[in-house]
């Protein structure tokens, strides 16, 4: 996909600089612009644990990819509608959302997708209506493939589709995993966060077995990293032991700016362009592209 290679960051002495994950640090090159667009690679942000940075990572990774000229569709797949609100829409006022696209034959994804104020970013919004879908889907034929079918119609219009999942491993999340090429697992750099991951990996493996053999784990992303604590570093060390190179070299530090950006309903990359949080998500976008996780 992308042949650009990361280059090691060296000290004046020639020794490699060690990054926050305990491995040698790299510079990820600026991706060249794309000559043509689509079909999109589809990536789900998944962790059944709440408040780990799924929505924040969807918005800001998506915004960073959009800055690099990638056409991005963000799919809000959480009835709370936090992604929709975070991109400046009022989800409770919307008549047509991802719920209608999934449950009504006559409604297509194109009918529900809205443009955002941000260049190269469209949104397939959600609101509380989606909370009924989990129950209603149970009686559908091919109930795990409903989202996949819905996204198929618009895949050619985008380079990347990011699905922001709700904190659960229920049927909606299984739909997201079935529709996806890759999964990103955001996780707070805290010990108790590690426990949830085993169950998540089991679910991903079941989906690979039964529904979507091509599904890959694109990466594990440490969020809310506190560089001052040994604790954060130990957790990331444990993650690297368990997941090896799947752990993104990029870690997202803890900062209140993310909450401020949410209040402003903007990606941090727009709200505070030069903030370290913006730079971190741009680096994540470049790292993902270097890995072949996005065009
Ligand atoms: N790196 C960070 N530093 C500080 N706060 C953060 C960071 N990332 C996210 N937050 C804040 O933590 C809270 C939870 O983040 P977010 O909503 O992205 O998590 P989530 O996994 O989507 O949650 P849910 O499971 O409820 O959907 C939010 O208030 C957000 O602003
Ligand atoms: Mg969320």
UniProtKB/TrEMBL annotation:
Pfam families: AAA_31 (PF13614). Coiled coil: none annotated. InterPro entries: AAA_dom (IPR025669), DNA_Partitioning_ATPase (IPR050678), P-loop_NTPase (IPR027417). Gene3D superfamilies: P-loop containing nucleotide triphosphate hydrolases (3.40.50.300). Residues 41-217 form the AAA domain. Residues 16-38 are annotated as: Disordered. Belongs to the ParA family. May play a role in septum formation. This is Chromosome partitioning protein. The lineage of its organism: Bacteria, Bacillati, Actinomycetota, Actinomycetes, Micrococcales.
């Amino acid at each position: 996909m992308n042949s650009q290679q990361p280059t090691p960051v060296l000290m004046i002495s020639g020794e490699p600089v060690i990054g926050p994950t305990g491995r040698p640090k790299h510079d990820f090159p600026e991706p060249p612009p794309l000559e043509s667009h689509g079909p999109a690679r589809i990536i789900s942000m998944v962790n059944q644990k709440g408040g780990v940075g799924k929505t924040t990572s969807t918005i800001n990774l998506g915004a960073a990819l959009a800055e690099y000229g990638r056409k991005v569709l963000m799919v809000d797949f959480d009835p709370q509608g936090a992604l929709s609100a975070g991109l400046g829409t009022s989800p409770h006022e919307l008549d047509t959302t991802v719920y209608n696209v999934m449950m009504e034959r006559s409604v297509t994804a194109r009918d529900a997708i809205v443009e955002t104020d941000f260049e190269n970013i469209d949104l397939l919004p959600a609101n509380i209506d989606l909370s009924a879908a989990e129950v209603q889907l149970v009686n559908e034929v091919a109930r795990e493939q409903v989202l996949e079918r819905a996204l198929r119609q618009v895949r050619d219009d985008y380079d990347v589709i990011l699905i922001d999942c709700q904190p659960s491993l229920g049927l909606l999340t299984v739909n997201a995993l079935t529709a996806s090429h890759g999964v990103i697992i955001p996780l707070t750099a805290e010990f108790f966060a590690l426990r949830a991951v085993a169950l998540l990996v089991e679910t991903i493996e079941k989906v690979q077995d039964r529904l979507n053999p091509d599904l890959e784990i694109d990466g594990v992303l440490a969020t809310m990293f506190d560089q001052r604590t040994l604790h954060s570093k130990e957790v990331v060390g444990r993650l690297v032991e368990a997941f090896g190179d799947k752990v993104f070299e990029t870690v997202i530090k803890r900062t209140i700016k993310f909450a401020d950006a949410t209040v402003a309903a903007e990606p941090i990359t727009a709200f505070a362009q030069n903030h370290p949080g913006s730079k971190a998500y741009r680096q994540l976008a470049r790292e993902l592209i270097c890995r072949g996780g996005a065009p």
